[in-house]
Design brief:
mainly alpha; flat
Amino acid sequence: MNNTFGGVPGQNNGMSPQEQQMVKMMQGAFESCVVKTAMSGVAGFGMGAAFGLFMSSFEYAGPTMNEELIKQTTKQQIKYAFKDMGTRSLSMAKNFGLVGMIYSGTECCIESYRAKNDLVNSVAAGAFTGGALAAKAGPQAMALGAGGFALFSLAIDWYMRRD
């Protein structure tokens, strides 16, 4: 591995041997499947929280309000809405985090095993993730989840890799 950081190959770019060793250790850590999986879980949690907050805000915009809620004061309604938005946001954050962790961890393990970075890794990781998420619903749901998530993974990865 060549650590040039934009410099001339073979030069240390003003770094001491200890600094070079630290950079190599950090690069190695960020390339590990455990760190990639954890980072995907955290990123998925954050995205899920934001998405859940955004989607739950639409719940209170329409005319389908609960009769009990309408009879409450504005302060009580706002308190209820914020609590419900937080609950929904947390739920979606957990789900997105879990999906991110399963997919990223699986893809990283497959990539490490195959020693290749191609679309096959994405499809296989998507199939595993979709099947694992639908496991409680039975074999038909697992097959449908695996196929659907594999196709979705293929489409996204193909789009991201195109020139």
